[in-house]
Amino acid sequence: MQRKTSWLVLAIISLVLITSCDSKAVYDEYKSVPNKWHKDSIASFNFKAPDTLNNYNLYVNLRNTNEYPFSNLFLIVELNYPNGKAVIDTLEYKMAAPNGELLGSGFTDLKENKLWYRGYKSPFRFGEKGDYVVNIQHAMRKNGDVKGVVKLEGITDIGFRVEQVQH
C-alpha cells in the first residue's frame, strides 16, 4: 500500500511541475461535462486581454473518451469583445482517423485535443483592453436529422487556451 501511495504522490507532483512550466500559456481553463454534453449547454470562459501589442494563438481544448461516436465535431464558438462586439463561428474539427481511431494525445481511452481557434492563418491580437468571453456549444447532427444530437456522448471536458506567440 505504501508503494502505491508513493507512486501516486510522485505522479501528482510530476503533473503539477509539467503544467506549471508551460510558459506560453496566458490563460488555460477547462469545464467538466456532467455525463453527456447537452446541445443547449454552453461552456463559457471569461478572461482579461493579456495586452494589445503581442500576437496570440487561441485554442479550443477537448477531452474525449472512446464513447465519442463521430469522426468529426462541429462547434459554435462565440468571441465577445469588451465593447460588446461578438464574432460567432461554426467550426468543424476532425476527431478520428479514416480507420476510426480517435485523434488526440493520451495513452488511455481519454484523448486530449488542442484545436485551433484563432492565430493559425494570421496573427491574432486582442484589439481592446478588458474582459473577453468565449462561449462554446456543440452543433452535432446525424445525417438527415434536422434537430441535431441532443446529448453528445464521449466529451468529458471543454477548455479554452490563450498562448503568446513565441518569436
Kindly identify the CATH topology.
Jelly Rolls
Helix content: 10-25%
Strand content bin: 35-45%
> What is the C-alpha radius of gyration, as a whole number of Å?
18 Å
Distance between the termini: 48 Å
The whole-number mean of residue pLDDT values reads 88
- The tally of beta strands, per DSSP, is 10
**CATH architecture level-2 label:** Sandwich
Major β-sheet profile: 4 strands, antiparallel
CATH class assignment: Mainly Beta
The total domain count is 1
- Give the number of helices: 1
Output the helix-strand order. Answer: HEEEEEEEEEE
Q: Report the principal-axis shape.
A: globular
- Biggest sheet strand line-up: 1-10-4-7
Going by helix content, strand content and strand pairing, the class is mainly beta
- Enumerate the spans where pLDDT stays under 50 for 5 or more consecutive residues: 14-20
Can you walk through the features of this model?
It is a single chain. The protein has 167 residues and is mainly β. It has a single domain (24-164), classed as Jelly Rolls. The protein contains one helix and ten strands, in the order αββββββββββ. The chain has one helix at residues 2-20, and strands spanning 25-32, 37-38, 43-48, 56-64, 72-80, 86-94, 111-118, 131-138, 151-152, 155-164. A hairpin with a 5-residue loop joins β5 (72-80) and β6. The N and C termini lie far apart (48 Å).
